[in-house]
Each structure stands twice: as C-alpha cells, then as structure tokens.
Amino acid sequence: MLYSSLPVILGFTSLVLASPRLGKPTTFTGVSTFNDFIKQGSTVCGPLAAANPNHFGAASGDISRDISPGRCDPPLDPDLSKCNKAEGTPLDPHYVGPACPKTKAQCDKPTCFRVQNTGTFGSSSSTPTGIPIIVQIIDSCPAGHAQNYCKAYNKNPSKIVPPQQRCADGSTNYLDIDYHAYKHLTGTDFVENQSANLEIQITPVDCNTEP
Length: 211
Description:
mainly beta
C-alpha cells in the first residue's frame, strides 16, 4: 500500500464471496489503497500483475465484509507487545506474520471485480472522477499482521492509519490495488505519500470482462 505509512503485508487464500456470482451482479461499497506489487516482489499466487494486461492486480482484506479471500491464520488478535507504538511498526524486524496459504483452485481460477471511484476517502465534498477498472485478486491483506495493526499507533497522530485503510475493519470491503490504476480511477497520476485513498464501488465480474 503506497500512502502515508508503510506498505501493507500481504498473503493469499481462497476467495469466498458473500453473494452469488450468477445473475444480476451485486455491488458492494469499499475503500481502496494503492500498492507497487513489483516493488513488493511477491504474491502467494505468484504473478505480480493481473493475467489480462487491461486489468490491474489487487489484494483484498482477509476480514473484508463481502469480498474476503478467507481468514489468514492466526486471525485478527493483535499482540500489541509486538508493536513499536511510537513508530507504528513491528518491534522485531524479522517478525513472521500470519499464514495465508496458496489455494491452487483460487490462483488457477482468478476472481475479478469492476471498481469505480466514488470519492476521496473521508471526504463528503469530493467529486468522483475517472473511469471504472477491472481488478484481479492476486493477494490478500491479513488484518492480524503486526505490520498492519501496529499502524493504529504513532507518536505523530497524523500518521495513525484508520482501520478502514489498513484492512482491519470487518465492516469494510478493502482492496489494495496496483498503483497504475490510480490515474484511470481519478484522472490524475499517483504520487506516493500524497495521493488520497478512495471510496469505491465493487462489483463481481467474470475475469474475461473487459473494462
């Protein structure tokens, strides 16, 4: 995740949607942050981008309300003794986070969503711009990873990350999307540590769907 704090730590497991994929699509609301998967270097499924060059890779939060890829192990049960509360980071640089095991069926039969920008996160006055995109889920964000839950603390209050923006809110649908998608969604280039996170609409689609 590329914004005002360290990247979210990601993993992967099988995706379980809360509603059927057949018939009229169900649209969910959610929040998106943005990530450089090439810089991240790996995803559990392997690819660092969507299979379709017109789509974008993304990770979904493991406790997302409607688009959870399944819970990582262990689930959200923060051990705050692992946090440097002044910096909002794990104390141990070699900390090993939750396991989000690869599920062959999910990686071989990818899950995709159409994503539409509906405004800047936390702003009631922003005007949505840009065009919809298609994302393919290539990774998962474990809420129970110290690199994520430790962001609830920082000696600088402006650097504390709300749970909706670090995959730690079970009432929110969370996507961490390849940052190249930002210009499509907003009409502006992505700038690390400056560009705002977005409120979004999320609709399940077949991965053969074009934007």
